[in-house]
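Question (not urgent): is this output format expected?
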Amino acid sequence: MNEISHKYFTTGEFAKICHVKKQTLFHYDDIGLLKPEIKLENGYRYYSYQQYEIFIVIELLKDLNMPLKEIRDFLTNKTPKEAIQLLQHQLTQIDHKIRKLNHTKTIVETKIANIQQALHIDIEDIRIEEMDESVLFISHSILDASDKEYLNAVTDFINLCNSYELYIGHPIGAMLAKEELLQHQFENYSYLYTMMPQHFLEASTIIKPAGKYVVGYHKGDDKQMASSYFKIFKFMEQHHLKLKGYAYEEYILDEISVNREENYVTKMMIQVEDENG
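Got this back:
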């Protein structure tokens, strides 16, 4: 017994090293997944340090959603060639998870940055701002769309964003064409959009032009946007500006950061030029 106690770990000691409960090791023993090196007639179990390597592989494969039965079958009938094949497959899975986690991290970082920026704005402020160009991924046209066509376009857009991991945390915005702005058709959007990395130039992307924009904000229900647009139009008239291109709307405070729709804040950006320009 002294020789065993010096060279082997008890179940409790081995469980502590592996950061699991003893019941986990009992279960692994019962199903033939990881049997102790030594099991005495009195039921005492003893594990060698070499078995820690097996435990690590079991936990690695579990983390990659491999069923315990498949792990047991692999460990029971393994060969070096099969081990390489399995681990190479799992390495591919790990790379996929890392890519997904990095994508999720980008979304979270972008959300944090957008909310922090929103905390420092004055929603009553209207200003002229020189903006750099940006790449936008856009939906199918939703101009003059029926309710069903609109919902289908939104669904397709979101599905594409998710399928190709195009959504990186920037708001999903809406674009209003110059013609609709002039006719005060503030709910007849042309496209939905979300911002892409600058290097991303593929089909279904457009360039939001660099240039002069009037920037304002709207708080509350988007069905009441008209009043905010009229304030911006008055500002444009006072500063001798005229419409040049699209208006871009995007939430900067929404359900993720505030409660109730009346507290939502929409950023409005309208491309303009001087009246004499």
